[in-house]
Amino acid sequence: MSRAPVWRAVAALAVIATSLYLALTMSPRLGLDLRGGTQLVFETKDSPTVKADAAATDRTLEVLQRRTDALGVVDPTLVRSGEKRIIVELPGVLDPRKAADVIGRTAQLSFHAVLGADDPKGLPDESGQPLRLGPAVISGDGVTDAAARTDPQRGVSWFVTVDFRESAAWQKLTGAAACEPVGDPKRRVAIVLDNKIISSPQVNEGTPCRTGMPGGSTEITGSFTPEEAQNLAVLIKGGSLPVPLEIVEQRTVGPTLGADAIAASAKAGVVGVLLTGVFIILVYRVVGLLAAIALASYGLISYAALVALGATLTLPGLAGFVLAIGMAVDANVLVFERAREEYGASPQKGLKAALDRGFKNAWSAIADSNITTLLAAGLLFWLASGPVKGFGVTLSIGVLASLVSAMLITRALTQWVIGRVPPRLSGLGSIGRVRTWLTAKNPFVMRHARRWLAVGAVIVVVAVGGLLSRGLNFGVEFTGGRLVEFTTATPMSADTARQAVATAGFPSAVVQSSDEGISVRTGQISADDVVRIQQSLGGGVDKVRDELIGPSLGEELRRNALIALGVALAAQLLYLAVRFRWTFGAAAVLALFVDTAAVVGAFAWLGKPIDGVFLAAMLTIIGYSVNDKVVVFDRVRELWTAHRKTPFPQIVNQAILQTVPRTVNTGLGALFILAALAVFGGDSLRDFAIALLIGIVVGTLTSSFVAGPLAIELERHSKQPPPEPAKRRDPRTREGSGAVV
């Protein structure tokens, strides 16, 4: 007796136990769009003396790290992205003006002697008096530390301590200033940052002339508030940046919006999983119940993998997590449908043998479909930006977890139960009503192959018409600009909001109103302008989202989106051509082009935004649609190998009829999840769900009525022979008894 089922059950228990331990002992790392805060993306620029390369960016990152630490932000994240970009995440910081002003100061910090006052060409001090300064005596590199402190016993409220790397320069600077009379501007020392005097303290009366302040440290006292002292210490301690910085992207999300997004996604996930579970139980009975249990295990495994890897869970990532649950049904459906076929062909061999053959024969289609989805997820991770990267991560983890769920846990559970329940109750004892009807009718749908191609061409023409007449509504992520969303205490019409924004000085802004609040989309405006818009909208208005994308970054993201879609199609063509035949690969990719055109055209006609979340939806559609086409062509190859003399159109027709139950059941499983996302997921996830709903419906139809007819047409021009059946190895004849002396 084989021990494989026992080891499979042990492995399944080990995976579930490990996942449960990780889920209970580790917390997920939430992205800023879920927990609230500000994300700033800086790009380093060349200075007259320093080139903005990876080394300069790393040195800049160290300075930004010191400044961020001094801000007192809990759990900040700073990482270099590429050669010239630095991503700064500040949880809980909802005022981007403060963060950008303190962290992103670009000029050199320096300490100067004051040579005189009331100089028209001088720099204004804190009170506005212009001061004439001498050359820099100490640069930012000479400062080792600065801190805001308070000492009630000395009667001083707040002061700033500064520590220098070398004491000689500071002693010389203060010694020269101490020789001037008290109250004379020349007795002051100017601290300059970004060509602006941030402090100009006077050397105290007890400092000896020419001797100065020894010890390499000093205190700056004055009428500081705690915040003023803290900011001054941050700027001094942060020192100078090796190269200038430019903000190319900024995202600010309020904690309320993040909490609402988590609640909405959780609700969508629960409703979607329950609907999917009920559906699969109704269709497949006992094995469907076991598959539903495996789906719950899949969710646990995916979550545990996310927290164990330290992946950041974003809003699109949550959508990917929920969507992958629907896609995880696919492997179970493929196995169960194949087991039904095997049992129907040879019922005398029993359910266990049919189930084993179902797992064995479905593996090829399962592997191919999951690899194509991983290709799309990988492209999302490498070419997308911001929260959409999280979607690629969760989708990849979901695909791998679905394989473990279906091929290990479902298999262990079903092999334990099968044989203990009657065939009809098991869910595998009949081929199902749909397959029974198709077998009885045996319609020849490929008789009108060219008519189906004409319908596909009409879809493309309608989509192109939408692009030409309506154009695409690119979001700020692809065009550059600023998008701000506000919630209002009382409903406000779009006209009223538009008038208020125009009064604030932005008549060309795109203003939209919904039940959830007001959104304002403009060009490149400052954070102060955002405050002015908020004030013009009146009281009871709270900012919940603020996104700024620089024009250069918007162009780059738009270019990367086109590259991602192009590479996705090329990668699918290459994989399918290698795995199957070039005719199958070309037919699948041309059908994918119809799917893509249908979704893009629908968004053009509906005026829906084209942004990073839409890119995630498109790449998911490509991966999901290829799954369908892989299953169809995998069956075509199998039938053609077994029946090489049968005309190819009949082979394609038979393959389509045999895979219809799997296609319908898998599609419905995903549609339940997407419908839940569309209802509960909020505006951004609703558009994501709409794109996927359109893509999955169209992709399911094109798998049969576009990819199939295209393969028939292409095979007429192909000189490649039909696939050869796999050659079986002849058993070796053993000579002698095998005994050894």
Automatic annotation (TrEMBL):
Transport among keywords: yes
GO biological process, one term: protein targeting
One MF annotation (Gene Ontology) recorded for this entry: protein-transporting ATPase activity
Positions of region (Disordered): 716-741
Record's bilayer topology term: Multi-pass membrane protein
InterPro entries per the UniProt record, alphabetical: SecD, SecD/SecF_arch_bac, SecD/SecF_bac, SecD/SecF_CS, SecD_1st, SecD_SecF_C, SecD_SecF_C_bact, SecDF_P1_head
Domain Protein translocase subunit SecDF P1 residues, every copy: 58-114
Highest taxon in the source lineage: Bacteria
The UniProt record lists the keyword Transcription regulation: no
Residue stretches making up the Protein export membrane protein SecD/SecF C-terminal domain: 246-417, 539-715
GO CC, alphabetical: plasma membrane
Spans through the membrane: 6-24, 270-295, 301-329, 362-384, 390-410, 452-472, 561-578, 585-606, 612-627, 664-682, 688-712
Residues in SecDF P1 head subdomain domain copies: 126-243
Subcellular location(s) of the protein: Cell membrane
SUPFAM superfamilies (alphabetical): Multidrug efflux transporter AcrB transmembrane domain (SSF82866)
Biased composition regions of type Basic and acidic residues, renumbered to the chain: 725-735
Quaternary state and interactors: Forms a complex with SecF. Part of the essential Sec protein translocation apparatus which comprises SecA, SecYEG and auxiliary proteins SecDF. Other proteins may also be involved.
Sequence similarity: Belongs to the SecD/SecF family. SecD subfamily.
Function: Part of the Sec protein translocase complex. Interacts with the SecYEG preprotein conducting channel. SecDF uses the proton motive force (PMF) to complete protein translocation after the ATP-dependent function of SecA.
UniProt protein name: Multifunctional fusion protein
Protein's organism: Nonomuraea dietziae
